[in-house]
Design goal:
Oligomer: single chain
Helix content: over 70%
Number of helices: 5
Radius of gyration: 22 Å
Strand content: under 5%
Length: about 180
């Protein structure tokens, strides 16, 4: 017998926050992507921000900026998908049925997404580090670093996926014996 938890305050807050953060991440990704045409149309804007001692051409600096913006938007998109999957899990808990194969699959995908975000940050870190040598200090700001916490999150999600899969199998066995 499952107990519906639709009115649980924590689940409602979790649902609201995941939707809210998905919207914020999607808006930021859209803004980053919206900057790309501007960089292509007005290369002088890129040249104005480059340091006098820059070794790169304006075209190289523009491509680096476009690549960094695209990678950033992609990572934000992965974050949106991660939160979408988390929201689906939250909703299934509200329905009173969290130990299902679908949630185990969602947790596995979330683990891969967490891993992809950490690995995806590596080229972005390299590009931004290079850009910091080519642009004025105020033109490039980034707080990027490889995080062992992200790798640990992926590991925890993979383990939780196995726990959920095992729980779903036990539940199926129990239903088969009753």
């Amino acid at each position: 017998m499952t107990r519906l938890l639709r009115n649980d305050g924590l689940l409602k807050a979790g649902n609201f926050l995941t939707v809210f953060v998905i919207v914020i991440l999607a808006l930021v990704a859209a803004v980053l992507l919206a900057v790309i045409p501007y960089l292509l149309i007005d290369p002088a804007a890129v040249a104005d921000e480059m340091v006098d001692a820059a070794t790169a051409s304006v075209a190289q600096a523009t491509m680096a900026a476009i690549t960094a913006l695209t990678l950033s938007a992609g990572l934000l998109g992965l974050g949106c998908y991660f939160l979408f999957l988390l929201r689906r899990i939250i909703l299934s808990v509200g329905e009173g049925d969290p130990f299902i194969d679908a949630n185990a699959s969602r947790l596995t995908r979330m683990g891969w997404i967490a891993l992809a975000i950490e690995v995806g940050k590596l080229p972005l870190i390299a590009i931004v580090a290079w850009m910091m040598t080519q642009f004025q200090p105020t033109a490039v700001e980034a707080d990027l670093e490889f995080s062992l916490t992200g790798l640990l999150l992926a590991l925890v999600l993979f383990i939780l996926a196995r726990v959920f899969r095992h729980g779903a199998a036990m539940r199926a066995d129990l239903e088969g014996t009753v």
